[in-house]
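Design request, tokens follow.
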């Protein structure tokens, strides 16, 4: 490109000069300004071509790192038996690259800490179940197994995938995936939309490639409904920058991961599929397609696998707790009712079939329905894989559409307090004490329902949803302790819907007459 452009400039210049020096020839010469313009145009084109040539020749800088497998075991402190085994991987940049990419270093430090906590928390979540299984004669132990897929490490992206397999003594375990993709210069996660510009075509491409790469053609032929369901499910996974999809970036494409049951039946397995830049250039941006004119790096040459870390031993925490405590959990939700008794009846039926079932009052948790509903879950699981493990049981019990959802934090514990007379009430200007009154947990799961002694004080409030007309003689702005001091005898009687922490009433949600 360079030599050709220079020759063209010389030819144009020579032609102009020759025309200007001819004698006796009837010719028109170009003004000097036009000559300069021609030079600039050609030189501009030359510079652009040179820039393109240089950019296409520059390969991303490789990033060098090490990784280590860390094993851990969860012990029963009473018997000394192994309850769960687990492992997780940590990643460390080489010292020279820490200086080049300090933000990536910080991001990987955060990942290492979070991954250790994730695995150990998952193992601990199985404690009660594994102790129960072993007491019933199960001689093995559970497992939380992690495998790592190292994919890309250069100055454009640092990306890897994780396989997470959980097993706790049933017919089979559950496999799911996690994907990580960092911008080495900022340490921030790379967005799916930075890589894929056309998600409309992607669902069909994914399903087609899954068939090709994973020998699913026969399965989908036998179960066409599963193929249709998967095709319909992928757009939902792609929403909010593929929030519902596990993915990671390779040097020459992108990997997508699907957990057990994503294809349909468990027999179809968990699956991984690669969508390459070369095969589908129209759906990708050019940002990370950087190896068109060069060899794809072998990431194994950049990564050093260190010896396994010494096994760490965790002591399981045992002890009695309420069936539903204040911890958030993953539920496998099978049904919801507007009447508590219907939920409790279903819980009894599921328990008769040997299933661990509970009724949960939706208003108590941040991620559940704000409409008052009694929701039935199979299991109170500490992790999504554990909850997924109940799916087959739910289907056999007649609930094929059961789904997993995380409760989020527990906002409150709701109970009904039954005030039949004022004899159990001690009312002072600063505090109201309800002594040994009958109570009922709204969820219906507690074994410790009433009588309770509960306290109302200046920190107790009327909830904004409270229908104040049910509180006889209520005056605008009164607090619960003020209302109790001003209310007359009969107005104090009824069923109070309240939230409590220990023996303190935090909020009042309503006052009703009993049936």
């Amino acid at each position: 490109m360079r030599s050709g452009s220079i020759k063209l400039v010389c030819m144009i210049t020579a032609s102009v000069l020759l025309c200007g020096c001819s004698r006796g020839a009837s010719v028109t010469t170009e003004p000097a300004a036009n000559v300069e313009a021609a030079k600039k145009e050609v030189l501009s084109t030359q510079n652009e071509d040179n820039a393109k040539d240089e950019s296409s020749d520059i390969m991303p800088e490789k990033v060098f790192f090490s990784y280590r497998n860390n094993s851990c075991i969860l012990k029963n402190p009473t018997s000394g038996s192994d309850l769960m085994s687990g492992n997780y991987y940590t990643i460390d940049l080489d010292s020279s690259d820490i200086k080049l990419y300090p933000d990536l270093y910080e991001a990987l430090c955060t990942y290492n800490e979070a991954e250790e906590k994730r695995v150990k928390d998952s193992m601990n979540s199985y404690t009660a179940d594994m102790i129960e299984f072993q007491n019933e004669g199960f001689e093995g132990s559970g497992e939380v197994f992690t495998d790592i897929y190292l994919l890309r490490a250069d100055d454009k992206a640092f990306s890897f995938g994780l396989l997470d397999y959980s097993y706790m003594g049933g017919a089979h375990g559950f496999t799911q995936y996690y994907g990580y993709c960092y911008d080495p210069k900022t340490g921030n996660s790379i967005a799916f939309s930075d890589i894929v510009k056309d998600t409309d075509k992607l669902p069909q491409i994914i399903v087609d490639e899954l068939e090709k790469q994973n020998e699913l053609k026969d399965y989908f032929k036998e179960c066409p409904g599963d193929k249709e369901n998967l095709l319909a499910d992928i757009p939902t996974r792609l929403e909010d920058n593929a929030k519902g999809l596990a993915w990671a970036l390779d040097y020459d494409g992108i990997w997508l991961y699907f957990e057990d049951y994503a294809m349909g039946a468990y027999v179809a397995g968990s699956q991984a599929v690669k969508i390459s830049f070369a095969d589908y250039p129209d759906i990708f941006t050019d940002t990370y397609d950087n190896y068109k004119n060069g060899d794809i790096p072998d990431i194994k040459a950049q990564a050093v696998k260190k010896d396994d870390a010494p096994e760490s031993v965790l002591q399981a925490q045992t002890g009695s707790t309420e069936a539903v405590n204040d911890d958030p959990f993953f539920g496998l939700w099978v049904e919801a009712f507007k009447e508590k008794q219907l939920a409790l009846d279903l819980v009894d039926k599921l328990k008769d079939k040997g299933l661990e079932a509970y009724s949960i009052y939706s208003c108590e948790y941040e991620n559940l329905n704000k409409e008052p509903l009694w929701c039935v879950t199979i299991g109170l699981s500490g992790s999504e894989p554990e909850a997924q493990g109940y799916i087959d049981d739910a289907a056999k019990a007649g609930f094929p559409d059961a789904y997993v959802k995380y409760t989020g934090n527990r906002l409150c514990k709701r109970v009904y307090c039954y005030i039949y007379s004022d004899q159990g009430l001690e009312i002072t200007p600063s505090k109201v004490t309800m002594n040994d009154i009958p109570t009922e947990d709204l969820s219906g799961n507690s074994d410790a329902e009433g009588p309770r002694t509960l306290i109302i004080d200046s920190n107790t409030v009327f909830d904004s949803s409270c229908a104040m007309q049910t509180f006889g003689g209520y005056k605008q702005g009164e607090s619960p302790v003020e209302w109790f001091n001003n209310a007359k005898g009969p107005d104090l009687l009824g069923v109070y819907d309240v939230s409590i922490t220990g023996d303190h009433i935090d909020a009042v949600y309503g006052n009703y007459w009993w049936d």
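Comment from the thread starter after seeing the answer: thanks! Residues 413-512 form one domain.
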